[in-house]
Amino acid sequence: MEALPAFGEAWALILQPVVLGYLVLGVLMGLCIGVFPGLGGIAGLSLLLPFMFGMDPILGLALMIGMVAVVPTSDTFASVLMGIPGSSASQATVLDGFPMAQKGKAARALSAAFASSLFGGLVGASFLTVFILVARPIVLEFRTPELLMITIFGLSMVGILAGRVAIKGIVAAGLGMLIGTIGEGASSGDLRMSSYDFPYLVDGLKLVIVGLGIFAIPEIITLLRNDRAISQEAQIGGGWIAGIKDWFANIWLSVRCSIIGVIVGVIPGLGGSVVDWIAYGHTVQTSKDKSNFGKGDVRGVIGPESSNNAKEGGGLVPTLLFGIPGSGSMAIFIGAIALLGSGQIEVGPAMLKNNLDITYAIVWLLALANVVGTVLCIAASGGIAKLTTIRFVLLAPFLFMIISFAAFQSGQNLMDLVALFAIGFLGILMRRFDWSRPAFLIGFVLSNPAETYANQAIQIAQSRFRKGFVEGIDYIFSPIVLVLLAITLVSVVLGLRQAKHILAEGDSKSGSKRAPMVFLLCDHSFHWLCII
Amino acid sequence: MSTLKTTRRMAMGLVAAATATFGLQANAGGHGIDLTGKTVEWIIPFSETGGSAKWANFYAPLLSEALPGQPTVVVKFMPGAGSTKGANYFHEQEYDDGTLIFGSSGSTQFPFLLGDPRVKFDYADWNVVLASGTGGVAYLPPELAAKMDGLDASGLKDTDFIYGNQGATRLDLVPTLAWEMLGLNVESVMGIKGRGDGRLMFERGEANIDYQTSSSYLSGVTPLVEAGTAVPMMTWGALSDAGDIVRDPTFPEIPTFKEVCEATDGCETSGEKWDAWKAFFIAGFPAQKMVFLPRGATADAMVTYTAAFEAVKARADFAEISGKRLGKYPQMTGAAAEAAKASGTNVSPDAKAFIVNWLQEKYGVSLN
Question: How many domains does the structure of chain A reveal?
Fold first, then answer.
């Protein structure tokens, strides 16, 4: 088969000192950006893009891949050490990673996370090497009803993360979905909760801002109220080896979550920001002893971290094979490839035929970048982990500045900051009154795909039904849809039963009944207003 | 305290002197402006991932080399509100020193032409230095293409078509109006995010008619044609110097919509519908992307930028590097660009009224 010689050629391309040098440079730059919460690969890549013109293709690719690959590894720092999601793929890590840091086990959490990230990246690359050859026909089987079903499956994760009182979690997800609809409707162009006189809301709220606002700001405020350092113990603990042993003890979990990550990344149009929630949900559902989740169970770190690195590899499939970016940074990646190849390298269906060696080179450069990134992260973590021992009052202004910068930099719009603090306020209230914020975020992220796919599936199905009842049913209830439907039902039933044990909000103290009641009423009136 | 005052005065003096030098330099000579050591900001009111980004990223480094003083050319993306946000922003800028330029696309022109309430800018204020055209190709699955009798599309009239549509008032109105004029029954599935998604729907068998702009067709659909899963139906054509629709130079073997319309019963290449289609076609394709200098731009600046773009076009390797990225379309400067801008940003009131009414009837979209 032509795959093996292409594979060999790819390695010949990669294993040159110059290429590896550029890779390390890219990783270093990605590390600097990834450590700061909220920035993510897209900021760095768009800065790099103008310089790519005229660069040798392999060198330029190595540089870019280095940047993109290390972000899901380095975002763990912010998630574990500060309880602030480092990037949109690292939200679930916060749930268990941060409590571990609070108990003084930051080093253990970090090393488990890095080991999982590395493993996830490598599993993703290996899986891709084989899968990419058969990927096209399989991906083409995922039509609109299948995509809708996966979105619904993602929404069902809410059941697990619903918190102590399941109905509150579901309402929180509903609130997230409503807020996700703000702006111009996809199909009809009509405006929801916005008007042309106030142009900011017409585009809807951005995920970076909502994610940072709903998670980061409440955590910072809570820590400020406690007026101590993040870690309640004196040192970060010496659990480096323990973390790696933890990972090894749960290696099959890591493998499963990596596969989940790759598959979710492969399917175009899903948006990888839910992959870590799906992995977290899977981790919880398949564990026998669930009592520690949300309080610092290392498995809650291993699962999501394996999946988010694997997702980067999976995202290459739609990007390279279809020319459809799997995520925002992949979109810039496509633009850069066009610049570099000066016409010879065209992403799209011809990629496998004409450029199979470059394709494999990309896949394995990604794997190598994961390795380099992990090594650098481990080296840097000693110093960075000491941050948790500083009194938080000193750290908080710096964190606020970074978060505001991350929110501001994508659009340079002052309204972004206003939105950030408005969402932050909402997040504070939700945390205080024990409404599940992960559920909110899942609702927010999935509201757009859910609406678009449902709309399109109905339109296409209607025309099929007009041709014949059987044709219509065939289209909607294809085998893949039925399988996904079964998985979703199982997950919802199990999830609701076990939700009581997962403290998605940690131990939040609730005082009197009056304040929670007011918040509840506000939330419900907002829902009713939207319906009307 | 007095030392501070003196230092401050000295500093202010230096700043004033420096500003004076810059000011003098900009007006000196009358042979164009010098941009040594400056950074030119090129605003693109779209995201980093779209066709306009590719177009700007292609030209930016070439422009940097060709401008006097070799300034750095940086592309700044300002997406939002369907590109009206960036356009409204540029509308508020006055010409300063030639370091600000703007790139618009068909998606900026259409809201302007249709009277979208978000539009606060006016193309008449801006000065065009480059107009890039592009084309579009419609294609069908092979079993449906076989129903066409040469150029006559009447055989397709009883087929139910599904098309992935980005939005009623977007560029998609050119293909959908064309298909309606041919008598085809095309149902639009609204709300897809990009034309690439439309192509994906076609590949999955959910859509059975689609169109792509030239560069996407070359990279994404040509392999499908080679594999036998897609057949080109027609191009929208290109504009000759005399203003007629002729065959697309990138796809000389594929017939144009005009030819197919002439061969199909019930489709007229004259009259209200045709005029409206042609007006919006020109705005959307041959004059799709334009580079502007802001309001109040001096003649020197116009000359400088026009000369720079002509220098880029005159490069020995231009045909080679632009062929795959932009297609073989005229990159117009000077008077040709002005003509393109005029035809791309003006439609007759009749054509506009027809389209607005058609959108209302077909999609229920009202533009008030």
Answer: 1
How many other CB atoms are there within 10 angstroms of residue A221's CB atom? 16
ipTM above 0.85, yes or no: no
CA distance A230 to A220: 10
**What are the two backbone dihedrals, phi and then psi, of residue A477, each rounded to the nearest 5 degrees?**
-100, 60
Whether the full predicted model's pTM is greater than 0.90, yes or no, is no
> Vertex A318, ends A313 and A321: CA angle to 5°?
105
Please provide the average confidence, as pLDDT, over all residues in chain B. 83
Q: Which residues are A421's β-sheet partners?
A: none
Q: Assess contact for A388 and A395: CB atoms under 8 A.
A: no
Residue of B nearest to A342 (CA): B321
Residues 275-314 of A with CB under 8 A from B: none
Here the tokens at position A224 are 């400020």
Number of separate helices (H) and strands (E) present in chain A? 24, 2
In this structure, the strands spanning B72-77 and A183-184 are unpaired
Outline where DSSP puts E strands in A145-268: 183-184, 191-192
For residue A324, tell me if it sits in a domain.
yes
Class of domain B136-284: alpha beta
Residue of B190, B208, B324 to mutate for A, most A C-beta atoms under 10 A: B190
Domain at B34-133+287-349, CATH class: alpha beta
Do A288 and A494 touch, CB atoms closer than 8 A?
no
Query: Is A463 in contact with B47 (Cβ distance < 8 A)?
Result: no
Mind listing the pLDDT tens digit for each residue in B29-54?
446 788 888 889 999 988 766 678 77
